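Human: We require from you a protein record containing the residue sequence and its fold in token form, and nothing else.

Assistant:
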Amino acid sequence: MVQVKICGLMNKEAIQTAADAGTDFIGFVFAKSKREVTVEQAKELASYVPSHVKKVGVFVNEERAVIEEIVQTVGLDYVQLHGDETPEFVNQLPFPVIKAFQVRSEKDLEQLESYHCDYYLLDSPAGKYRGGNGEAFDWNLAKTFNFLNKKVLLAGGLTPENVAQAVQEVVPAGVDVSSGVETDGEKDIEKIKQFILAAKKGEN
């Protein structure tokens, strides 16, 4: 069953909608972004996340001590790293890790071999901020690459309209969306429902 991660959630209604619709992960952004939340906000929002849904904190080139403190305070299940973190840095973290990679060419995918983590998030090249620029990379790169059973999450430019196709073509372990379920920069309840439904249907 393909897993779905809805990222950049900032209010109770969006979290409950995503959880009710069957999301597997909910992401809180602690890096510079229009979706950035404070530790206090995230702690409150995390209280609305059911126990079967995993809470993910998104960080960019953050210090290990800061990450550890936020994980404990908020009660995060996963840490998602969107910066230039090294394999050594990832290995030092005592939590499940999702490492993001910006995919421009097959050479970018070759980096995955050096990293040992729970999920490998393939994203399009960064816009103003790391991640979340709403554009897809060339899925053909991922379709032909041998990931050696590494668990891949597909991100970048996914929407309720194209996620089923992405799941069928790339066959990722999961999909990750943020701007693709927004209207005018705000999370859209209907789009969240449609995205999760389409992603789960995509593998049929």
